[in-house]
């Protein structure tokens, strides 16, 4: 059997959101080192398995410039939450699809992200996103969006919308079925970090 990984032919960029306050963690999550590598860098490196066009949206570009891999673009954020940060990032995107990632996903694996991209080729034109789903709803910060969703998203934001769940409730979204949901684990609190470190000892 051919074991060559399937690489999608669709055009793809990535947006990494790194403009949160890390209130629950009590220190900047993006800079927490896991196996010596800051979380934000790990997330960007995972995204590099799918694309070399990576846009990090953050209010702290000076702080992160030395942290992100070379050639990643840093987009200055206006700090109105992740949905607005995503819309800001989207204005820079020139590819048909974009992979959106949070910066606090320590279990992200580049190979897994790459395997997901194959599904993008099969998605109907009126479907605007391919996202994992959980009991809480869509998992908006670890999945794919069409660039064309920007105009509708901007309208939603202009009307005061700030919630991914409310926006996606009125959009056509396809579920990205996951073999292993661990990849979605996001590290929000010191306890999350401790649990993660213990599992990886
Ligand atoms: N660019 C941008 N990213 C954001 C913003 N708010 C949250 N994010 C990012 O969105 C992702 C999910 O956010 P949360 O896990 O809620 O992170 P947070 O806001 O830093 O954490 P808390 O303050 O503890 O809620 C993380 O990657 C954050 O960096 C924002 O206003 N702008
Ligand atoms: Mg989080």
TrEMBL record:
EC code: 2.7.7.77
Coiled coil spans: none
Pfam families in UniProt: NTP_transf_3 (PF12804)
Binding site for GTP: 17-19, 29, 77, 104
Lineage: Bacteria, Bacillati, Cyanobacteriota, Cyanophyceae, Leptolyngbyales
Highest rank taxon of the organism: Bacteria
Family label: Belongs to the MobA family.
Cofactor: Mg(2+)
Organism: Phormidesmis priestleyi ULC007
Catalytic EC class: transferase
Sorted UniProt keywords: Cytoplasm, GTP-binding, Magnesium, Metal-binding, Molybdenum cofactor biosynthesis, Nucleotide-binding, Nucleotidyltransferase, Transferase
GO biological process terms held by the UniProt record: Mo-molybdopterin cofactor biosynthetic process
Binding residues annotated for Mg(2+), in chain numbering: 104
Protein name, as recorded: Probable molybdenum cofactor guanylyltransferase
Residues of the MobA-like NTP transferase domain: 14-167
Task of the protein: Transfers a GMP moiety from GTP to Mo-molybdopterin (Mo-MPT) cofactor (Moco or molybdenum cofactor) to form Mo-molybdopterin guanine dinucleotide (Mo-MGD) cofactor.
Localization of this protein: Cytoplasm
GO-annotated cellular components: cytoplasm
Gene that specifies this protein: mobA
InterPro entries named in the record: MobA-like_NTP_Trfase, Molybde_CF_guanTrfase, Nucleotide-diphossugar_trans
Classification via SUPFAM superfamilies: Nucleotide-diphospho-sugar transferases
